[in-house]
Design brief:
The complex is a heterodimer. By secondary structure, chain A is of the alpha+beta class. Chain A contains eight helices and 14 strands. In chain A, about 25% of the residues lie in helices and about 35% in strands. In chain A, the strands form two sheets. In chain A, strands 1, 2, 3, 4, 5, 6 and 7 form a seven-stranded mixed sheet that branches. A six-stranded mixed sheet of chain A has the order 10-14-13-12-9-11. Chain B is about 20% helix and about 15% strand. Classes of the chains: A alpha+beta, B alpha+beta.
């Protein structure tokens, strides 16, 4: 049984999927041990699996089966009932929890497997905030169609900008927007403001001054070096979210005049 | 890609380079979009039910909303071998 947070992006918002695909996840996992293990041993083994771990993706995985390094941010033991262990785990994207359980079982000596899993967070999306079932989506759609009320649908469907909650942002001038929509790189003069924690070769979100997502880009510099730079390329556009033509095209005329 | 702490524990601050305005004629604040624009630029934080696969859930969402394109972030599967085929349901009438 695997349930929980599954962000689904619609139409133009699908371009933003990478934003939360690469961010951390949180799960509540029910693990079945294959023989009796003392509580203190369970606690100590869970501690051992916190931090950097090495993991080989399972047979039926969508990635190449080679050992990968993954970070387990935290494991909290919630309950032990005989051979069943309930714990909460926060981990880097791409960590296989089923594999984590069998590796824990191997380390403890008796073997173990994952019985049930619930994802409680995928990047900015959590089960506590605006998490809706298919039935709730269907009901919101029905009310919109039959009664003409949009409020329910607006609650269930969130603006794409929420996907970027944990990605540092750069806010740009209106005159720089359309060039980015056409895939151009972002240069220093286009920037109005920016957030801290921007690092080279890391994702950065390009936003308008109205708070609209323009594109997902890869930063070339740190926040500090961008603040000191007077010109140069700051970020390479990777995925464009905003449709070209939303803002006026000012980049061609500027090119001609220089 | 070394991460010591999850992204949700990282605090960020805004640094301002220059003060300029934005023209109200172009674009609009995310919460001021029409319902059609809102859906076209929408994300659903879905609570995935146990049986259908992530892929099937996406097909369901597309059908309910009548959108042509949708995708999920991060497969959430019961990847157990020998899962009965009876559980591989496709969307029925909505």
């Amino acid at each position: 049984m695997v349930t929980g947070v599954l962000p689904v992006a619609l139409e133009d918002a699908t371009k933003a999927i990478q934003a939360f695909l690469l961010s951390g996840k949180e799960y509540v996992c029910l693990m079945q041990l294959h023989s009796d293990v003392a509580e203190q041993d369970i606690r100590s083994i869970l501690r051992d699996f916190t931090g950097e771990i090495y993991q080989k993706p399972p047979l039926r995985a969508s990635v190449k089966r080679e050992v990968r390094k993954r970070t387990i941010y935290a494991i909290n033991l919630l309950e032990i009932d005989g051979r069943r262990v309930l714990f909460r785990v926060a981990c880097q994207a791409g960590t296989y929890i089923r594999k984590l359980c069998s590796d824990i079982g191997e380390a403890v000596g008796c073997g173990a497997h994952m019985r049930e899993l619930r994802r409680t967070r995928a990047g900015p999306f959590t089960e506590d905030e605006n998490n809706y079932t298919l039935h709730e989506l269907q009901e919101a759609k029905r009310i919109h169609v039959e009664e003409g009320r949009e409020d329910g649908l607006r609650k269930v469907v969130r603006p794409v900008e929420e996907a970027f909650e944990y990605i540092p942002k750069i806010y740009i001038r209106d005159s720089a927007v359309d060039a980015i929509c056409h895939g151009a790189e972002l240069a220093v003069p286009g920037i109005v403001s920016l957030e801290t924690e921007i690092r080279p070769r890391s994702p950065v979100a390009i936003f308008t001054l109205k708070g609209e997502a323009v594109a997902l880009a890869e930063s070339q510099l740190t926040t500090e070096s961008i603040l000191e730079a007077e010109k140069g390329i700051v970020a390479k556009t990777k995925r464009v979210i905003m449709r070209p033509g939303t803002y006026p095209r000012e980049w061609k005329s500027r090119q001609r005049s220089t | 890609m070394k991460e010591k702490a999850p992204v949700w524990n990282v605090k960020r601050e805004l640094r301002i380079l220059t003060q300029v305005d934005t023209n109200v004629q172009f674009g609009k604040k995310p919460l001021e979009r029409s319902i059609e624009e809102h859906i076209r630029l929408g994300i659903i934080n879905l609570d995935k039910p146990p049986n259908p696969s992530s892929h099937e859930v996406v097909a369901w969402v597309k059908r309910i909303l009548g959108v042509s394109h949708a995708g999920h972030g991060g497969t959430l599967e019961a990847e157990a071998p020998g899962r009965p085929d009876g559980h591989r349901r496709t969307p029925s009438r909505t």
